[in-house]
Task: structure prediction
Amino acid sequence: STVVLVFEAPAPGPDGKGGFRFTVERGQYIKVGEALGVV
Amino acid sequence: ARHSWNDTKVEWYTIPVGLGILVVALSHLRKRDSSTSATSAAANEEKLIRPMGAWQVQVLSTLPLKALSYYWGVFNEIPLPTFLRVPGFKLYAWIFGVNLSEVGEDDLRSYRNLAEFFYRRLKPGVRPIDPRPGAVVSPADGRVLQFGEVHAGGLVEQVKGMTYSLDALLGAPASGTDTSPNPAELVKRKLEGKSVETQARYGKGGDADREVTHVASDEEFANVNGISYTLPSLLSGDKDAHNASGDETPQDVSLPQHTTTSAVATVGRDLARGSWWSGSSGDKRLYFAVVYLAPGDYHRFHSPVNWVVERRRHFAGELYSVSPWLQSRLPGLFTLNERVVLLGRWKYGMFSMTPVGATNVGSIKINFDRELRTNSLTHDATKADSEGGYAEAVYRGASALLGGHPVPKGMEIGGFNLG
Result:
């Protein structure tokens, strides 16, 4: 089974800072409650 | 027969060369005609989603997957003899890598069959929730198969470059004329001492909904879903929101589901803090993430952020396996499979979470949606088709203030069941 998330989040600023960024790698094993990404 | 077979004389004749050439030419012409007619038909015919790809996929699509899944579920609900349960579940745990030390029940005999063991809970405290306010946490245990930004035109990359459209996955965007009141405005109007009218729409989307309009009394604001909190706390977000009994419910996923006494306050605080419904200031992007749960994983899913679920769309599709292998070979797999789309909003704008079923886990449960029935052999196609291929339910009645079901980060939302 699979869970797909689709969501709006702030884009990174012109300097690439701020906004939402993923903090995971493709293929990484993750558990409930661990961050996929952070604004 | 033997006599006639042995005694009949066999005579051989040569075929005239011309006749041979004529037969080859005719078959060539016929083949060319059939290929040109196929391409022309395909050109003007609407491109149907037909599962193409590897030959294994073609074999899969001929199987009665839903019936297989349904009876797989019935089989797994047969109670096991008590003496078989411990060795049986230990074998399952060994094969699929289940961490038995985290399983909610220490005595494995309390799980009567594999279906109950599959839908087990975890021990308290084994899944701490990332406390950062801007963190989007994983809704389930599993492997991050895919993540990134939704391309222009709403294309989401599946695996290995395969893409599918967002509209096909989630259904068309909710009607733009969403009349749900802007809850942040409601709260502010209330603070200015103005009267506030709230509408609550009961029933499922598409049915004759009852619009109920009433003036929100002070009590209602102070006591939504059993919460007794003051409005300033809702706006300031400080910690004085508590439930009627005064204790702050701990953020712990092992709870069957967060007692709703703290749900509305938690989400309400987030609601009032961010530029909630008009989306955050500045540019916004659309992101996606795909988490794949293996058979041995904990199969309940939780809320990734503080958000409000406004509506649910049930697409009763097929039940292909969603293994990474098949995901990389079957284009549009997620738009083919049975799935339940939860649509709503969080403090930065739109938020959606879509559990996608598969052959062995055809049943998807949403704790706050008793009406949802998935993987049923007798699917109400007419209703779903009348609404663009899905059956929709609107949760506006759940909390008049927030316009939907408030789900704080980490709260158990539901899960996948065998069959």
